[in-house]
Write a structure and sequence with these properties.
single chain, alpha+beta, Alpha-Beta Plaits, 4 helices, lyase, MoaC, cyclic pyranopterin monophosphate synthase activity
């Protein structure tokens, strides 16, 4: 079992992967997700009329903050020296698509940070719109790409 899942030791127990001997490399990951919203909710967002404030500005900060704290949320994640996190939004006819990019120079990847940024940005939109939209759905959350050099 330990050969299949890197976070299991030879006894099949949860274990943090030892990356100490790996070389530092430039790493990048990009993830995305979408929150489906009612047309009226999108109108309110575009008009800046949501009572809690600028939805995308708050969700962007929340996503960046979440990426920086991924290692505190996911038990076996390493603390990664992030050099860049971006969170962007694209208004679509039926919702908002969120894309996050995380970068670092380190011994392990940043896909969990990018995915965490997307999830928390979407949750923030959900929280800020829940008073006006009871039918929101967060979906299509996925890793789009990851690289190392």
């Amino acid at each position: 079992m330990a050969d299949t899942f890197s976070h299991l030791n030879e006894k099949g127990e949860a274990s943090m992967v030892d990356v100490g001997e790996k070389p530092d490399q430039k790493r990048m990951a990009r993830a995305s997700g979408k929150i489906f919203l009612q047309p009226q909710t999108l109108k309110l967002i575009k008009a800046g009329s949501i009572e809690k404030g600028d939805i995308c500005a708050v969700a962007r900060i929340a996503g960046i903050q979440a990426a920086k704290n991924t290692f505190t949320l996911i038990p076996l994640c390493h603390q990664v020296p992030l050099s860049k996190v971006s969170v962007d939004f694209e208004m679509e006819d039926d919702g908002i698509r969120t894309t996050a990019i995380a970068k670092c120079t380190g011994k392990t990847g940043v896909e969990m940070e990018a995915l965490t940024a997307v999830n928390v940005a979407l949750l923030t939109i959900y929280d800020m719109c829940k008073a006006v939209d009871k039918q929101m759905v967060m979906s299509e959350i996925k890793l789009l790409e990851k690289h190392k050099k």
